[in-house]
Every structure is written in C-alpha cells, then in structure tokens.
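Form 7-S
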Amino acid sequence: MALFARKGFTGKVLLVTGAARGIGAGVARAYVAQGGKVALLGLEPELLEALAAELGPAAAWWEADARDGRAMTEAIDAAAAHFGRIDHVLANAGIASYGTVRQIDEASFERVVDINVNGVYRTLHASIPHLERTRGYALVVASLAAFTNLAGLASYNASKAGAESLALATRQEVAHLGIKVGVAHPSWIDTDIVRGAEADLPTFKLIRGKLPYPANSTTTLADCVDAIVAGLRRRKTRVYVPRGVLLANWTKPLLNSPVAWLFMRPQLKRHVPDLEREVAALGRFQHAHVPLTDPKKPLEETPSAP
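Output:
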C-alpha cells in the first residue's frame, strides 16, 4: 500500500492551473512525490519557475492567464506536447474579492467571475481533446461557498456555485468520451488568501466564527492536498475538504430557509455595516497577494514563454 501511494501516478501527467502557490503548488508536489509529472500554469513566473526547479525534470511551467482563452489553449497544448499526454487536470485557479454588492466595483466583481467560472471553462475546453486520448479525469476546485452564502463574498459565492454547475454539466457531456469530471469543495484552507482576509477584515473573521461547522473551521493545507490527491487517484465525483462539507451540501435547503434567516438577519444587521467600513478603509477589493493582470489593460495576444 505504501509503495502504491508513492508510485500511484507513475507514467501519468497532471496539469494544474493556479499552480504557483497554495493548493495548486501543494498538489503538484504530492503528485510528483507519487511518481507523476506536472504541468504548472499560472501568473507568477518567479514562483512557477522555482517550483519547477524544485520538482526537477518531472515538472515544467507555462505563464498563462485564466482570463485569456488563447493563452490557456496554447499553454495546455504546449504542456501536452512537452509531456506527450495529459491524464489529470486540476482546474484550481481562483480568486476572491472583498465587499458587498453595493460596494464592490464592477471590474473587481467581473474579474472574480471571469477567473472562477470562465477560467474553468477555458481550462476544460482546451483540456478535453487531450483527456479524450488518455480517457482522463478533470477535477474542478469549487468551494464550500457553492453551498453556503456569506455576506461580503457575493462574487465568490456566485462564481463557485457556477463552477460547480459547469463541472457537473461537463461531466455529463464527456462521459461518452471516457472522461470523468469531479468537483472539489474545500472549506476555509490555511492559505495566504484566507489568512489575509481575516487579517484585513476582522469582522469577516467574527462572522465566520459564528457559522456552524464546517464553515467556522480552518483546514490545514496538507489535509486539503491529501484529499485532492486521493480524489485524483480515485477519479472521485466529489471531494469534500474536510469531509464535514458534505453536510453543507445535504443541508443547503435548510441553510437558505426562513428558519435560518430568523437567526441570520439580526447578526447581519449588526455586522455588515462594520464589514463595509473595513473594506472602505482598506481601499482595495482583493487580498494584497492575489496575482492579477491589470483589469483595464488589454490582455496580451500571446502567452509569455517560460
């Protein structure tokens, strides 16, 4: 069993978007440790290059923006040519924005939806021809947020619910090709973005602390990586991180019921104004370490080469 765990991906190739840090980088390391090879896609070339150097000949990297369909297609095709195949895809690239709907600017809201939903489409669209050749598997990283809405994260909630629906529809569309598609639902994972959000917005941390399990808990990155790698190996339909997120899926109607609203309304009335004041004082709608292209600058027509 231990040998299988170490060599479970021998001869296989994983393509990861959002691979420079956090979940993407962690999964890439684990996949290589278990005998596989990885194609790293993202927006932070220095981090991608460093990760590829760390992983050695089993890894290669391409700088590509999930908002640019041409760049994504060219990078994915180049990765398939470099390694000779793609067996697994982890559609992991995603961002979150701060601020309520009345507060957040249009560009910031659209950027979240474009990366978290359209970016998944662009990844799947370009990957499917390669996955068809290997009868492969794609895992789309959605979130607990697909089931549980939270004030101040409307763009993230909407985008992750959309990513889930996109993945499930795609699963039906490619089944006859021998491809399987799954959805991962991490809760709050101990990454730069989650730590940054709680540091930037004390009220956000306060609101989250009053939510029921698992929304009020934080899972280690290592546990999240283990669950996702197991999902890749077993070609799972759903990956819940932690497993308690399954309860949020099953109880979604209750969480959105009039009974739940009776409890939530007074809490929101008290805390949402504080949250808006904190976002206004912060002067930005994203975490400081989120890699972004300038939303007002036209996307380059060709991707940067590593």
